[in-house]
Amino acid sequence: MAFILSEDRDDDSRNGYAEYLAYLHANEHRFPPGAYALATSDWYVGFSDRRAPHDAWLREAAITEAGDAAGGGVSIRIHLLNGAGDGLIELVYPRVHAYRLNLHHGERGHRDWRYDEFRLTDDGHLLHEIEWWSSEETGTWLIEADDVEHRFVALDAGAAASPPSPSTPA
Length: 170
Known about the structure:
Number of strands: 7
Strand content: 35-45%
Distance between the termini: 34 Å
Structural class: alpha+beta
Number of domains: 1
Shape: globular
Number of helices: 4
Order of helices and strands: HHHHEEEEEEE
Low-confidence stretches: 163-170
C-alpha cells in the first residue's frame, strides 16, 4: 500500500502523510536506519530544503555489479541536481535485491522527481518508489534494497547548472 504518491494524494478523504508517518513509526524497528532517518526527517519530505529530492533533475544513474566469484552484488547510485540548481544529491543503494526503472513519455527526459516514499516488503527489504513528472507522469522507479545512503554537496554560485527550461527540448 502506498501513502503519499500521486494517486494517493487525489483522495481527499484521507490524510496520507499522517498515515505514512504512523506506518514508519510503527515499523521503526524493521526499517533500515538510513531510510528511516530520511523518511522521518522534516527536511527530506519538505519541498523547500536544498537537500530534498523534490523537483530534482536526474543527472546520472549507475547500476553496478561486483562480479566476484561469490556471484556479485548489485548496487545503484543516483546523482541529482536539486530543484534550485545549487546542489547535488547522491542516493546510494549499496545492496539491491530488485529494481524496475520505467520511463514513459520521456521525450524530454525524466523531468522532476515529484514524490517518493519508503516502504517495507513482506520479507523486510526496503522498497523505495519514486515518481518522475513533467506535465504528466514520465516514469516510476521501484528499488528494493537493504538501505539507502544520502549525500548532499552544495555548488558554488558560479558552478550551479540550472536544469533546462520546460520549453527547451531535451
